[in-house]
Design goal:
Blueprint lengths: L2 E4 L5 H8 L3 E4 L5 H7 L5 E4 L6 H5 L5 E4 L9 H6 L3 E3 L6 H16 L2 H11 L1 H6 L11 E5 L3 H14 L2 E5 L11 E2 L2 H7 L2 E4 L13 H6 L5 E4 L8 H10 L4 E4 L19 E3 L8 H19 L13 H7 L5
Parallel strand pairs: 1-2, 1-3, 3-4, 4-5, 6-7, 6-9, 7-8, 9-10, 10-11, 11-12
């Protein structure tokens, strides 16, 4: 029977789908050493934690690494390809979930929710209510979006049709910019946006994309919302700008180091909303991602190729390892 290792527990519907396809095992811990040890005899790995490169040269039965979600930075694709292992993901299924989170935290920043709630609880009604005088409307503002994948397009759609915002975007794929959204170059976008939303993947080109100079070019009072990956932003430069009050605030779901260290300076700032890499996680999205990953696992175990095949150059090597799939 095939062994299916998941780095984390799956939605019950996904787990039930896999029970007939193989022996589903949840890793005892999601750290690299544990995954390397427990993944050595796996046929399929479902991925919600970074996989160590060494795993792929030590797992002779491994057919596929399937990302539970869209982002592929947790899978060392080159190592998988060298080892003849398929890589797949489940794109777009949590795009609306992430987009809803963007507006949740944007409105919370504009209306000073953290300060209102904290002072109401600790200092009473008048102290909480006093913050309302400094709240700001979302209406009439410009939202700038970096990245026009499924998440970026979902954010743009809600911004335009839900809130009537002026929406601008930067993307390396101009054809992806929806009608009614202005395409700008990156520096113009950063300087224009009242709310700058990062939705791009982490690549060598996007690492450090929002560095000290671009943070300095943001409007006074502008907000930064990062639902991409932590290293897209120069975290030290962002902390400095927030501490100095040069920008209005930030909502961060991702960080350079995860989990966020307990002594991190971001934790002491009232103008920041922090969430533990959960923008795309709800009960519904977990079901969609889990079922999508399970469908890919079953498809591969039955001899097919993944629907969302992310390293197609591996096919010949994979079929040489598994001739019955040819």
């Amino acid at each position: 029977m095939a062994r299916i290792l998941s780095t984390h527990a799956l939605h019950p519907r996904a787990a039930a789908m896999l029970q007939g396809a193989g022996d589903l095992v949840v890793a005892s811990a999601p750290d690299a050493d544990t995954l390397r040890r427990e993944g050595r005899d796996a046929d399929i790995i479902i991925v919600r934690a970074p996989l160590p490169e060494a795993l792929f040269s030590e797992a002779p039965r491994l057919r596929a690494a399937i990302r539970h979600g869209a982002g592929l930075d947790m899978i060392p694709i080159e190592a998988a390809t060298r080892a003849g292992v398929l890589v797949a993901n489940v794109p777009a299924v949590n795009a609306v979930t992430v987009a809803e989170h963007v507006f949740l935290v944007t409105l919370a920043l504009l209306r000073r929710f953290r300060q209102v709630d904290g002072d109401l609880r600790s200092r009473g009604w008048p102290a909480g209510r006093a913050h309302a005088d400094h709240g700001r409307d979302l209406a009439g503002r410009t939202m700038g979006i970096i990245g026009m994948g499924a998440v970026g397009r979902a954010v743009a759609r809600i911004a335009r049709h839900g809130f009537g915002l002026d929406v601008a975007a930067f993307t390396r794929t101009p054809a992806a910019v929806p009608e009614g959204v202005r395409a700008l170059d990156l520096d113009a976008l950063v300087a224009t946006a009242d709310v700058l939303v990062l939705c791009c993947p982490l690549t060598p080109q996007t690492r450090g994309l929002i560095g000290p100079e671009r943070i300095a070019a943001m409007k006074p009072g502008a907000l930064l919302v990062n639902v991409a990956r932590g290293p897209v932003v120069d975290e030290a430069a962002l902390v400095e700008a927030l501490q100095a009050g040069r920008i209005g605030g930030a909502a961060l779901d991702v960080f350079d180091t995860q989990p966020l260290p307990p002594d991190h300076p971001l934790l002491s700032l009232d103008t920041v909303i922090l969430t533990p890499h959960m923008a795309g996680i709800t009960e519904e999205s977990m079901m969609r991602m889990g079922v999508g990953a399970a469908e890919e696992a079953i498809r591969i175990l039955e001899g097919g190729l993944p629907l969302n095949f992310r390293n197609p150059e591996v096919e010949a090597r994979y079929r040489a390892r598994w001739p019955a799939t040819a």
